[in-house]
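Morning, I've got a small favour to ask if you have a moment. I owe you a coffee for this, so here goes:

…
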Amino acid sequence: MYHYKIGICGGDFYYNLKLMEYLNCHEEIPIKAAVFSTGEAVEEYIQGNNLDMLLLGGEKPDMGSSIPVSGLIDQRDTTDGIYKYQSADAVGRLIMDRLGKKRAGESSWICIYSPVGRCGKTTLAKKICTHLTRSLYVDLEDYISFTPSEAELKDGELFMYYLASENDEILQLLEKLALSSQNSEGYVRIVGTTVYFDRQVNIKMLSWLKAHMLQENIFGHVIWDLGTAALLNIRMLEIFDAVIVPYKNDTSSMCKMNCFRNYIKENIGKELQQKIKYVELSEDDIDVENIGALL
């Protein structure tokens, strides 16, 4: 099971040590905590290591990093603070809430798909990954828009092979990537687009993978950027917790979107229809500030 890495800095050093000891020994809360004496120590640590969250017992130190921060405060919980004098168990659960992973076994799978080309779908998918904590981006677009590294090509081929054969070794691959392959935007990327031998996926494959990933709690969020070539059946969208369908407001795009909406309405059950969010995009719409409203 993946354990989320939490830094604790500032305030009552003795309290911080006790909280660290409790979190590290609590088997039901997948957290490994470390105490830092200064903001400089945090900055030095993250040069070669990852932190999922920083808990601050005092004023925020002057740091250049974008680690999610939550305060340890002397009053009741706020949107950006956790009351430190409640039970350590409650503190741990609140930390998981702030990370978007309330308990081991809870996760979200989000699909970004559109019948419309060049609508900002991939950009939107990557922005969602940046917005969410500990997210995995699975690139199954029809055409690749960048040059992947040799390591990404190898990992992408292994991922698709393990997925198609329902091989448990896919979990070892994902654990390795979770620990070592986070990019500068804060998420892990799987490139399946270049795997031309068979990159179609189906409900059976996805159901198997989702069940295993939920059990192991490797990632909190999995964002699938699906091109039409990857779809074996439109009903495979039912496996996702949310389906976001972006489009542009031009004549050609609206014609395709109307056909897609009518097909979904006439051929797909209400459960999937309720998961789909249609999002009109322009260049100005694709920013992190607007992402939260979609999720």
